[in-house]
Amino acid sequence: MKTITAQEQQTVSALSALAQVQRLRAFRALVVAGPAGLTPGTLSAQLAIAPSALSFHLKELAQADLVSVEPQGRHLIYRAQFDRMNTLLAYLTEHCCGGQPCEVAPPACTDCGDPA
């Protein structure tokens, strides 16, 4: 059997983290929020998730390197890791359509990325 590469392991980790409805919703909310990110309180209210459950889900997303957390005063700010998300998407679509141009290509996100 072929050895699992680091990229394959990272991909499995990311997909496993996203394979749960509340984590998927939290990640999507952070993507929508963009580089500004969200506090857990705001995210909890937006998604109607108990803070303790949200904390567990954010920890799982952080372990998969899909979100980052930054202390800002008394608050924590969670942000989607856009570089990691884009790497995951690139890996999944690397040989899309057998190397031929795809019929539908998503528009490039020009505002996504690390906050300045």
Report on the structure:
It is a single chain. The protein has five helices and two strands. It has 116 residues and is mostly helical. It has a domain at 29-93: Arc Repressor Mutant, subunit A. A two-stranded antiparallel ribbon has the order 1-2. Strand 1 and strand 2 form a beta hairpin. Helix 1 packs antiparallel against helix 4. It is globular, with a radius of gyration of 16 Å. The N and C termini lie far apart (44 Å). 18% of the residues are buried.
How is this structure best summarized?
This protein has 5 helices and 2 strands, in the order H-H-H-H-E-E-H. It has helices at 6-18, 21-33, 40-47, 51-63, 82-92; strands spanning 67-72, 75-80. Strand 1 (67-72) and strand 2 form a beta hairpin.
Give the topology.
Blueprint: H1 6-18, H2 21-33, H3 40-47, H4 51-63, E1 67-72, E2 75-80, H5 82-92
Antiparallel strand pairs: 1-2
Helix pairs in contact: 1-4, 2-4
Radius of gyration: 16 Å
* CATH superfamily grouping of the domain at 29-93: Winged helix-like DNA-binding domain superfamily/Winged helix DNA-binding domain
Low-confidence stretches: none
Query: What's the CATH architecture name of the domain at 29-93?
Result: Orthogonal Bundle
Principal-axes shape call:
globular
- Overall pLDDT metric: 90
Determine the structural class based on helices, strands and strand pairing.
mainly alpha
